Every structure is written in structure tokens, then in C-alpha cells.
Predict the 3D structure of the following.
Amino acid sequence: MADRLEMVLSMVSHSKREQNDLNPATNPRRTPALPKRLRWRALLGCAASVVVIAGHVHPAFGNPTQVTNLLQPLSQPAQEIKELSLLVLAICSTIFLIVVGLLVYAIVRFRHRPGDEASEPPQIYGSNQIETAWTVLPILIVFVLILVTSRTIADIQNRKALPGAVHATVVGHQWWWEIRYPELGIVTANELHVPASDGSRRQPAFLKLQSADVAHSFWVPQLAGKTDVIPGRENSMWFEPTQPGTYLGNCAEYCGMQHARMLIRVIVHPPGEFERWVAEQKRAAAEEPSAQAGRQVFFANTCVNCHTIRGTSAHGAFGPDLTHLMSRETLASGATPNTPETLRAWVRDPQKLKVGCLMPNMQMTDPEVDQIVSYLKTLK
Ligand code: CUA
């Protein structure tokens, strides 16, 4: 058997003439090798790219310890997907190691030796057993991969909502996320709040995904796989985090100029705290007497055509709901933290913070901007 294998490998390796063409001693036209220094740099560059691609995607700003790591799922179904990927990786790595091992063996065993010039390698037909084996085995391996993958996909897609599940509708817009909780009567933007599940109380989140314009894709790597958000179609997904915290994600389908600043935050509340957030969001918008002047400027401008502030005459649906704007951590779909300074810069000229975004520069005077910002700051 070993002799057979050696014969087949020698048959697969280069003929004598090809070996001579590749030999720098006999072929002066061969491209010179990269200088050693450059080779090291190229190698280091590749290694760095692999480390970055391996899942360390940094958010646009914020706490540097909050790194979104694809390989550290903290929820179903991301955990199931990771286990499947590791199985596929293990099978493929084994095949890779066997192929590379045989290749290296053939290269070393049948390398050019002094005195080989005069003789041709033995000309042989091959081996029926080996050829049958390397046809049947890959077919079996591919079948195993297909079956395991379909089982995982079916298991994830057919999951039924439990009685305690939280339901939300997420609508992709150029370039922000509208988030509605139809059962709770809440509308917010860019920050999806869900409860954490624990042993005694399971509260998975079931999302319906819609688009108001073009194709987007909803992806929070540590919670679940990516799901496309397609105009004229409703997709769905679910996840069940058990660890409270803030999970970062982003739109994963190129959707226009500010696609890169269409970030998502999923805020997972410890048991009991989600209900408190819901109660706060259900309150009517604040009406502080001190912000009366700013309120008047806001309602005298076209702001009301695009934004809703619940309980007022502002019913616009084109931009984010501002009823509890100041309860959000970020502005412009995660493009910048939500602070009084960035809020002012945003109202002054949104195009400076997010070029091409659909909110125009309203050409307001500085006192008008100050008044509107002082009103917005009360919308807690
Ligand atoms: Cu939305 Cu990319």
C-alpha cells in the first residue's frame, strides 16, 4: 500500500523538465525572491490582518474594553453557530493538514537529486483503490457537513416564541434603526433594549425586520447571526442573552454613503430592570416650563415634519422618535456619544457629523440652535 501511494505521488509530482524550469540554477529568467526584510514585513502584515479579522472589530468610539468578538458568543443562537463553525473548521483543518502533509512528503521524497538528469521517473497508471477512496470520502464528508448545517439552521429558524418573549419590530432606514415594541406601545431608535434570561425566567427577544428604503442587514455578532433587512419583505430573528450588558453591532449590507455609521446597540437589562426601562419609555414627553422658548422654536420649524414627540403635534415618521431622546447613549445611529456638545453640533449642522445623512442643515441662527437644544435636553 505504501509503495502504491509513493508511485501515485511521484506520478502527481512534476516531470523532470518542469523541475528544471523551476530550478534557478538552470533557469536564469526565474523571478528573484523577495528580500528577507520584505518577506518578514509581508508575513507580519498577514498575521496582523488575521488577528483583526478574527473578530476584534472596534466600535466607532466608546469604552475600549467593549470589543465585539465574533468568537465569544454570549447568547443563543450565536453559541450554536459558533459550535457549528468550530466543527466545520476542525474537519476542514484535518483535510488541509493531510493534503499539505502528503504534498510536503512528495516534494521532499521525490526532490531533484544529483544524477537524476539521465533517468525519467517510472511511468505508471495509478491506483483504482486510492482514486475511489478520494472520491467517496469527500462526498461523505460533504454530506455530514450539509446535514449538520441544515439541522442547526432549521433548529434556529423554527424556534417558537415562549410566553415571556419580548417582541420588537426593527425597521432599517438610511442610516438609522427604528425600533418599535407594538405590544408595549414604545418607539425608540438605534438602541434595542431587551431583558436577560436566567434559569428561572426565560425572556428571549423575537424581532421582525423591515426596511423603509433599501436593503440593510442586522448584525450583532455576540447575539446571533446576520439577518438581511429587505424592502417589501419581513424577515425575523431571535436571540436569548443571559449576560446583561451593551452589545455592539452594525448594518452589514452596504446601503449607501453612511452605511458604516449605521450602528446598533443592544442593551441587555438584568432581570427586573427591563420593566423599569419600559415604564420610563411609556411616560409622556417632558414639558418643562424652563424649555418653553426652545419648544416654540422646535414646533415653529419643520422639525415636526420628520420627528415624533409623543403627546405633541409632532408626528413625523421620517426621522427617529425624540420622545425620550436623552435616554439614548448615542446620536446619529451610534456615530457620536449623546452629550450636550454633540447634540448642539448635530442640530447646528448634521452634515458635518454625518455627511450625506438625510437630515439637512436647517440654517438656524445660533440662538435658535441653543433654544432647540435646551428643549431637546429636557426629553429624558
Ligand atoms: Cu444599512 Cu448598511
